[in-house]
Queue: 2 jobs
Job 1
Amino acid sequence: MKIRTICVPKVCVQFNQPMLSEKITTHLVKLKQKKYREEFGEFVVEGLKGVEEALHYGEVVLILIEGNRRDEPEFVGMIKKAETKQVDVEFLGRKDIGPIKTTDTFPGVLAVCERMDVSPDDVINGKPIIFLDRIKDPGNLGTIIRTADWFGIQNIILSEESVDPYNEKVVRSSMGSMFRTKIFESGHGVNTLESLKKQGYTIIALTMNGKPIKMLKSSPKTVYVFGSESHGVSQDVLNVCQEKISIEGRGDAESLNVAVSVGIVLSYYMIHAL
Amino acid sequence: MKIRTICVPKVCVQFNQPMLSEKITTHLVKLKQKKYREEFGEFVVEGLKGVEEALHYGEVVLILIEGNRRDEPEFVGMIKKAETKQVDVEFLGRKDIGPIKTTDTFPGVLAVCERMDVSPDDVINGKPIIFLDRIKDPGNLGTIIRTADWFGIQNIILSEESVDPYNEKVVRSSMGSMFRTKIFESGHGVNTLESLKKQGYTIIALTMNGKPIKMLKSSPKTVYVFGSESHGVSQDVLNVCQEKISIEGRGDAESLNVAVSVGIVLSYYMIHAL
């Protein structure tokens, strides 16, 4: 059941004692679980910046604002914008916040959004693609999405066994960038890469034993493959890759954080693509 | 009071029912707070990798291992190494873990370490220095330390109002790298930078309106200044900086994660310093 169908009438905006209906609270609590995000085709974004980006680039179903902050200028502006876009706004009483918030300190606003429906074709547009092999850490995935967006790269593929991109921590750490990127969740990463190779993409993996990254001469039609921090790029994925590159270090650290690695590779791509 | 003085005799290693003394439990719980970490001059590192690095590069006072995992090969090896280094090892019963652990899932081992005593002179060795202006997020600081270590840069200065580098989340996300870096906590960042300038260092800040980073021609005697994500480099610090550089983006993301930015800047330093 979609949240649209359980929305209470607009009149609740006038309540002196802001209070969410139990049905909506239950729905929002359910959205903390992946299976319900999939079932309802919805997810939650929390915080002013994220909700603003969602309103601008995403499909917002419902906005919930902390009742006692409704007169703060940024929320007044948001309510206005929501009206223009015909998005419902409701207000939260203090007691409503506890069960539904996804952060320790509730930032005053959250929105329920429709999941993006991304097909393989959506990420194939002749521009670089980031392929993430079994990335499990939501903070890392969010930061990677944000970094890709910074460098103007919108195409992201997640292999099987990856963290859910609609997990609230992913959404939060993407800082709104996830509404500007296209994330295709592949059920079989190797098959997806094979298919991209057939379409003329060069598949390059970041590994510990590749060519130095400064030798990277990349064309836009490139797939950059990154593995998980604990296991690196898996062997079956590596078998599909045509090139291996490495970020040279000089110290004793065992590895770089994967989001930092993505940033470094994309900054080199930027230079060579210019 | 240091934990050394409250350590129970070695015989507890033989207990069939592993159990921590209340004094040690209380001490470890206190170490979750900055004021006690400062008072005792100690901090906690959790997890196999971190404790291994601590044993190798740091000053470990006490190691605590989950009792029912003491026969696992990695812990047997660790106990042996601790003996060689004359570090006390104790074992934890299931009930001991709850109050002292700093992660949801206890990774089986933690160590109490002595804080490093870093003076300004320790970070002035003619090599690059990373200066962090009011970085508050512990995960970001830990990742920056790890990234610096990867690129062989050991000198880090924190301005006033920064997160405590001995915070458990910083320690954890540094992945052991904090034992190989020297972190000087400056009480007055601007004064520290002025003094470095007098000693011939070039002070370069990463900002949103600097020269493109590919124009970076850096010498080893450089201080790279990074600001917090929410506020950037503060004006008083900027006034001391001689150059401003930027990482060029192409998308709509408002900013890059600060740890990602450090990684990109240091990878450029590496290329130009070779």
Note: The beta strands of chain B are 42-46, 60-66, 88-92, 109-114, 129-133, 155-158, 182-185, 202-212, 222-227, 243-246.
Job 2
Amino acid sequence: MKIALDAMGGDVAPETPVAGAVRAAREYPHLEIVLVGQQQAVEEVLASYPQRPSNISIVHAAETIGMDEPPVSSIRKKRDSSINVGVNLLKDRKVDAFVSAGNTGAVVSASTLLVGLLPGAERPGIAIMLPGVKGDTLLIDVGANIDPKPMHLFQYALMGETYARHVLGRNNPTVGLLNVGEEEGKGTGFIRETYGMLERAGLNFVGNVEGRDLFSGEYDVIVCDGFAGNVALKTAESLASAISQVLKRSLAMSPITRLGAWLSHDAFKALRQEIDYAERGGAPLLGVNGICIIAHGASTAKAIKNAIRVGYESANHGVNQHILASIQKHAIMQ
Amino acid sequence: MKIALDAMGGDVAPETPVAGAVRAAREYPHLEIVLVGQQQAVEEVLASYPQRPSNISIVHAAETIGMDEPPVSSIRKKRDSSINVGVNLLKDRKVDAFVSAGNTGAVVSASTLLVGLLPGAERPGIAIMLPGVKGDTLLIDVGANIDPKPMHLFQYALMGETYARHVLGRNNPTVGLLNVGEEEGKGTGFIRETYGMLERAGLNFVGNVEGRDLFSGEYDVIVCDGFAGNVALKTAESLASAISQVLKRSLAMSPITRLGAWLSHDAFKALRQEIDYAERGGAPLLGVNGICIIAHGASTAKAIKNAIRVGYESANHGVNQHILASIQKHAIMQ
């Protein structure tokens, strides 16, 4: 199986993507990792590793799309960017998945325009795994589609449920609809219409859930519009970082608390691992007619390695065939 | 100055509101606290305190609106509920502020219907203080209006800016617009229209901000629609609680980490205080023609006491006259 990786994507590129590719190549010897990016720059970073794994190859892409460039115009102007070249490999079925920590909007646009959507799918959605007290929850969409229609949210539920079932191995996964209250009838007209569609669909639909359920781990899948999802995700990132900064400051306040912090070191390490996004790797862009995985721009080498693993697992479980089947089945039912 | 408190509102009522009222009456002897609720039940709780402060009085209200009752129909049906009676005291100018930890929707509806909005104000908005690394940020709206128009968001900016200036004492407060990216032109049409209005208003408008800015403390005021604001707030609550649960579990994992946790006890206490919502008290419902403060249903006695303080400060600084002036000034400019 071949996984293409955007070697130029992310805050520190090509160094971090290459480091992640090397880790993945060693840990998953049955995979072939295709680094997509400026040949010379990628070769130079690769050369810094004493042993170059034989299951890493390079496909040259002359241009790079910056993290803050306008997505649609940049993929049109920079046809030879690492994102365009990588997505075209996916389109031509030369690779089984494409992974990028680059400009999210550009990856979404390039995948939608070049590879296209699964037949019947109306919009792509980004699904992210949130760590929870009782387990992980898949939240879809976190920003691919910030002004969706009820049908889009309905399809996100189908996509997320299918992913949870076939890739995550959840049995009869529960699906919740993110809202401002639990009672039926809460929310805007848009949300109430989506609620009705989900109720009739024969999914394991648990009704409305609230922001407080995102990290409880009580639900397998939570569906939301990309605006609220994006805000919630970034709020969570910022709060986690604020708590850790304030805790660090508090723990440094006296010799006794510093000793306590030193003794508790293993506990903090365990906490960090449990809530570490890097452990969960990338976020699948569902609805696209090919496996596309979006990683955080600040991804570490470990996060990149895990995003490659997520790409492999999605391809290995043939998630898109299952999503297609679910969309077709529910198109007849609606 | 007289502050009315809904004695029947919150998860443990009338016990917790009465406890908060007693604390407030002792700490702020210049205030008169008016407990609104079932006379006998309130008297019984008050009788459990050895000394009843002389600056506490009771106004009887025969009915109680439950935390999960439908807001509009319950305030219409239960005309003698503690919320209706309290809001009517505000309407008749018999008190200077009304504080409730009860059913938020019912408080919003009763205030809007009975007291009415400030002339020119189109919708009320709930403003909440978020603790941040560099200071607190006022987020408005967190759920009074889940399907707002650009003009509503624009007015929330005016209300929040005025509150930050006159009640919080911030000099030329910065105002940000919650969006999915920082660049101008990001977001839905609704957000872009609001952006244009804010840009022309002559406020200290810093442009778009993201979910990650909510807890940075970089901004004085952040404006958002009530749906996203509600989701963000509840997400933050849930994450903070998840982190603390997982940390507790991690710290208990060995005798050494348990010793470490015991030594670090003061640091955790400092952290809790810094991020404790109870310290910040209630959230003002801005835009209403009277001071109305909404407290969390799970408020402790300390949180109730602080919500009473917030009500007093709002009334003392005449925040509504300033909001009215700001709305009138900008109505001419628009």
Note: The first helix of chain A runs from residue 15 to 27.
